[in-house]
Amino acid sequence: MPGDDIALELPEALRSELKEPLGPIYTDAEQLLGDATLPVVAVGDIVTYHLLAAGHTPAVALVDERTKRTDVEESVREAVVDESPFDETVAVENPPGTLTDGLLAALQSALEREPAATTLIVVEGEEDLAALPAVLAVAEGTSVVYGQPDEGMVLVSADDTARERVRSLLERMDGDGQEVLASLGN
Fold first, then answer.
1. pLDDT tens profile 113-141
2. Whether the Cβ atoms of residue 123 and residue 103 lie closer than 8 Å to each other
C-alpha cells in the first residue's frame, strides 16, 4: 500500500512505559460513554465492539481483527467489520510496534471528515500504538478510548497533560518524532 513507510518504531526501552494507562480504566462501556466527551476515537477491536454494543458508533475506530495477538472471535469481527455501521472503511498497513505514514494519514483524514461521518480504519498488522497519535490529532478535550489487556478500556481526555505525555513518548521512539509531531499539528 502506498504511503506505508514506517514513521516511528517503538524501542524496547519504552515498552514498559506504555503499560501505564493514559487515563482511568473502565469495564463498563455505558459508564465510560457517560464520562467521555463525544464523539470518541476508539483503538482496538474489543473496545470498538463494546462501544457499538452500548449503542455508540465511534467517530473513528482503528481495528486489526486481533486481540492479544490472536484473531478476534467471529462475533466481534462480524459486528465491527463485516456488518460495519461506519460510513467509510479504509485499509492501511502498519507493522507491529510501529506507526506508518499510511496509518497517520488515514487517522488525520478520518478526523477531518464532516462531524457526523464515521470511519473504520482496518489495519493490516497492528493498531496498538494508534492511540498515541490520536490523542494529539483530535480536538482539545475529545476522548480517545483504547484497550488495556486483561483490565478494560482506557478513557483518555485529550488535554494538556495527556498530550504532553504522548509527545514525550513519540519523541523518544525510533524515527523522526519531530516530523510526526509536526504532521499532527503539534
1. 877 899 999 999 999 999 999 999 999 98
2. yes
